[in-house]
Amino acid sequence: MKISIIIPTYNEESTIERLMETLEPLNERCEILFVDGGSTDGTLALLKDRYPVIQSPKGRAKQMNKGAEESSGDVLFFLHCDSEVPATALEEIETVMKKYRAGCFGIAFHSYNFFMFTCRVISNHRIKDRKVMFGDQGIFIDRKLFFEVGKFPEMPILEDYQFSLTLKERGIPLGMTRHRIYTSDRRFVGNTIEKLKVMWLMNRLRAMYRDGVPAEEIAKIYKDIR
Question: What residue ranges carry the coiled-coil annotation (predicted)?
Fold first, then answer.
């Protein structure tokens, strides 16, 4: 089973070195492709001569789809740049893929804030309860199935949510690894009230999408922080 790790990047010089540290135990045991959407900071300089970089128009869905098209793996593992993967990531994916055609990691944060712990519990429970996984949980999927369902919808936001809904509509069960991916809490700045506002906003945006509000309108509310 060959695994391709596909990582979209855009102005990630503050996170990419830590990610590369966690990728080191996996290097040369799988295919690792970075797909850059036109970074203007030091991201590309940090990646130079270390990993293959594919150029793509900006947009997480576009970048991930471009990486998938140029990859060669039997399993596609889509990883956010502000994540840290366990050293056992490949073995855990292989274990899940023996029984499933798609799955993800659970999520965790380095923060000891009670709110972030609550966010972690809710996010991981959502996979089992509502059969929905988000991109920061490290989605992985059988290559053939990925292209069968039409890849990620090329939307400015919520592409991972719609992708999960598509898998759910097709009755594709989701597997989950034993260990977690640590991801950045950079969206959740400020005190607990401010963190709650961010979580409320995320839920509101998904509800708007389910109610038929165009993703382009939703993207104007959920601004890019880079």
Answer: none
User: Is the CB of residue 118 less than 8 Å from the CB of residue 190?
Assistant: no
Nearest C-alpha neighbor of 104 from the set 81, 123, 82: 123
Question: Is residue 153 pLDDT above 80, yes or no?
Answer: yes
Output Rg (C-alpha) for the chain, integer angstroms. 17
β-pairing, 175-183 with 83-84?
Answer: antiparallel
Q: What is the pTM of this model?
A: 0.88
What is the mean pLDDT of the segment spanning 82-106? 94
Q: Is 137 helix (H, G, I), strand (E, B) or coil?
A: helix
- Give the N- to C-terminal CA distance of the chain in Å, as an integer: 35
Query: Of 131, 140, 117, which is closest to residue 3 (Cα–Cα)?
Result: 140
Burial of 186 (0-12, 13-18, 19+ CB in 10 A): exposed
Which domains, and CATH codes, for the chain? Answer: 3-185 (3.90.550.10)
Q: Give pLDDT, residue 142.
A: 98
| Tally of residues, the chain | 226
Amino acid at 205: L
The whole-number average pLDDT for the span 23-35 is 95
Contact residues for 131 (Cβ-Cβ < 8 A; gap 6+): 164, 167, 168, 173, 174
